């Protein structure tokens, strides 16, 4: 059973979670689409199964890429994930939305032009590291670099994180797309992030031979509202899977303190040796961070980007209670504003 499942990305990590009874009676599947009331799951032979969400299961607990056990018609259990990408949903009450599960490699995409931005790359790197996903920085448009050479852009990207592989490619050239294929073989699952226009669709087309269809299928929910769903898992020529969900393109940082610490290990290692444990690395005596900057061993810009990223993470990681308190304050503000408006119009 498990050998065919490898095509889906199944590993020992999942086999180990099955009881002998489940091993006999259940069918593992991988979720390719998660909709409001049902999911599309792939079985080992890559057949698509429409499974209704019934009983205790609700859509918000599943992500594209999840492995589940089924009795053929229904999901009986979700298996523990290797990795998970989520985001805090917009709105007054903070809620975590699951974006994709069991991704092995994140292609962090930018271009050899003004899109290249260290802070943005670091944000995506922190998200990947926090999730336990291997980051690969892909810099497109190496065939027409602007302002600097493609090698310069590569060097700048390499300086951000020593464990990230960095590739500069022409996404339109199949020979360059082949450089990504070592990450895309059978059993591997990848995802693409990056700003609009950097070449994500071009890379995806090169890897899968297909055009991604983000958000082009509409489904009515119970209240008659439209919700957007789309195909989200694409088979790559190299044998693996590319996951592309609408949320993947709007990833924001949250709850990634560990990822940030690891990404900025150069700074956090130094900071651990500062004289004061709460050192702000401004002008305190015995500050090893300042000493490194003065000695030209650490870049002042990097220190500032680290601070900003930590602030952003803290802001986006507020607890539900904090968020609700903010929400209540906001509703009160809205009520008062509306009241004042009506009063001005003489309606009250
Ligand atoms: N010369 C060159 N053009 C590229 C390269 N990568 C992408 N392009 C072009 O850049 C434009 C934008 O590429 P897309 O693949 O649509 O970018 P995207 O990231 O998918 O953009 P969104 O769909 O808006 O998120 C297209 O005209 C591509 O043909 C590259 O490496 N070299
Ligand atoms: Zn210090």
TrEMBL record:
Biased composition (Basic residues): 326-348
Chief location category: cytoplasm
Record text on subunit structure and interactions: Monomer. Associates with 30S ribosomal subunit, binds 16S rRNA.
Similarity comment text for this entry: Belongs to the TRAFAC class YlqF/YawG GTPase family. RsgA subfamily.
Organism field: Thalassovita litoralis
Gene Ontology MF annotations: GTP binding; GTPase activity; metal ion binding; rRNA binding
Protein name, entry field: Small ribosomal subunit biogenesis GTPase RsgA
Residues that bind Zn(2+): 274, 279, 281, 287
Cellular component GO terms, alphabetical: cytoplasm
Biased composition (Basic and acidic residues): 310-325
Any Pfam family: RsgA_GTPase
CDD domains: YjeQ_EngC (cd01854)
InterPro entries given in the database record: G_CP_dom (IPR030378), P-loop_NTPase (IPR027417), Ribosome_biogen_GTPase_RsgA (IPR004881), RsgA_GTPase_dom (IPR010914)
Gene3D superfamilies linked: P-loop containing nucleotide triphosphate hydrolases (3.40.50.300), Probable gtpase engc, domain 3 (1.10.40.50)
Domain of life of the native organism: Bacteria
Biological function: One of several proteins that assist in the late maturation steps of the functional core of the 30S ribosomal subunit. Helps release RbfA from mature subunits. May play a role in the assembly of ribosomal proteins into the subunit. Circularly permuted GTPase that catalyzes slow GTP hydrolysis, GTPase activity is stimulated by the 30S ribosomal subunit.
PANTHER family with a match to the protein in the record: SMALL RIBOSOMAL SUBUNIT BIOGENESIS GTPASE RSGA
Cofactor: Zn(2+)
EC numbers, comma separated: 3.6.1.-
Cofactor binding, per record: Binds 1 zinc ion per subunit.
Gene encoding the protein: rsgA
Presence of the UniProt keyword Acyltransferase in the record: no
Domain CP-type G: 95-251
């Amino acid at each position: 059973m498990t050998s065919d499942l490898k095509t889906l990305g199944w590993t020992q990590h999942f086999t180990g979670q099955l009881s002998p009874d489940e091993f006999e009676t259940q069918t593992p599947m991988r979720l390719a689409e998660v909709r409001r009331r049902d999911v599309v799951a792939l079985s080992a032979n890559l057949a698509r199964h429409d499974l209704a969400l019934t009983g205790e299961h609700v859509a918000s607990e599943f992500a594209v890429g999840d492995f589940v056990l089924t009795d053929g018609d229904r999901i009986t259990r979700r298996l523990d994930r290797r990795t998970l990408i989520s985001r805090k949903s917009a709105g007054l009450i903070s809620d975590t939305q699951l974006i994709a599960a069991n991704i092995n490699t994140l292609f962090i995409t930018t271009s050899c032009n003004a899109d290249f931005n260290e802070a943005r790359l670091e944000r995506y790197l922190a998200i990947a590291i926090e999730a336990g996903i291997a980051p690969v920085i892909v810099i497109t448009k190496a065939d027409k670099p602007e302002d600097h050479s493609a090698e310069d852009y590569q060097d700048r990207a390499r300086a951000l994180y020593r464990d990230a592989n960095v590739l500069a490619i022409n996404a339109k050239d199949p020979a360059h797309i082949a450089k990504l294929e070592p990450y895309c073989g059978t059993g591997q699952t990848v995802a693409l992030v990056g700003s609009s226009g950097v070449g994500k669709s071009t890379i995806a087309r090169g890897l899968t031979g297909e055009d991604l269809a983000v958000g082009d299928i509409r489904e009515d929910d119970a209240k008659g509202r439209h919700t957007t769903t789309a195909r989200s898992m694409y088979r790559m020529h190299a044998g693996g899977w590319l996951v592309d969900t609408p949320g993947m393109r709007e990833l924001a940082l949250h709850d990634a303190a560990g990822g940030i610490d690891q990404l900025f290990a150069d700074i956090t290692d130094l900071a651990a040796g500062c004289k004061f444990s709460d050192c702000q690395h401004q002008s305190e005596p015995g500050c090893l961070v300042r000493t490194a900057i003065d000695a030209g061993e650490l870049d002042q810009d990097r220190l500032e980007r680290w601070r900003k990223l930590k602030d952003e993470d803290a802001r986006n990681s507020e607890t539900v209670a904090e968020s609700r308190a903010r929400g209540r304050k906001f509703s009160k503000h809205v009520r008062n504003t509306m009241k004042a408006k009506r009063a001005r119009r003489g309606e009250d």
